[in-house]
Design a protein that fits this description.
By secondary structure, the protein is of the alpha+beta class. The chain contains four helices and four strands; from the N terminus they run H-E-E-H-E-H-H-E. Helices cover about 60% and strands about 10% of the residues.
């Protein structure tokens, strides 16, 4: 997926080889992708809870309804299920806020890692690269491919 521009055992800042720096960067990007997919999953679940709550508002409170709990279908009444759904929705909202904060922190961590180890992403840096950088810094840069989702 991505490759180093310099393949070899030359050490850079802090005594790490380009391969070790690249592996650390890939790990950070992987963690960020996992976090983003979990956030997306939680947002879908929150949306489902909102739809069910809105649907059950217009239904007789004594009416039977079914809820899937851990793969088991349970029969309850609308009156029994509604408070649980509202509580779950509130908890999902809190989890989503926390995940958003963690995702922002992970993005900042990745940017710091990129700056610290002079990592450049192909295609992205041709647009942003200032011309006044010295040639030595360009020679020591690690070039990786952009994230493919």
């Amino acid at each position: 997926m991505a490759s180093d521009k310099k393949a070899g055992k030359s050490s850079t800042k802090g005594g790490k080889s380009n391969e070790e720096i690249f592996a650390g960067f890939q790990t950070l990007r992987s963690e960020q992708r996992v976090m983003a997919s979990k956030l997306s999953e939680m947002e879908l679940e929150l949306n489902e809870h909102k739809i069910v709550i809105d649907t059950l508002k217009n239904v007789d409170p004594g009416r039977k309804c079914y809820r899937m709990i851990g793969g088991i279908l349970c029969e309850r009444t609308v009156q029994e299920i509604t408070p649980t759904l509202i509580s779950n929705k509130e908890q999902l909202t809190k989890v989503i806020e926390t995940l958003n904060e963690q995702l922002a922190k992970k993005g900042a961590e990745i940017n710091d890692y990129k700056e610290k180890h002079n990592i450049r992403i192909r295609g992205q840096d041709e647009l942003q690269q200032p011309e006044e950088e010295d040639k030595q810094a360009k020679r020591n840069a690690i070039v990786v491919n952009p994230i493919e989702v």
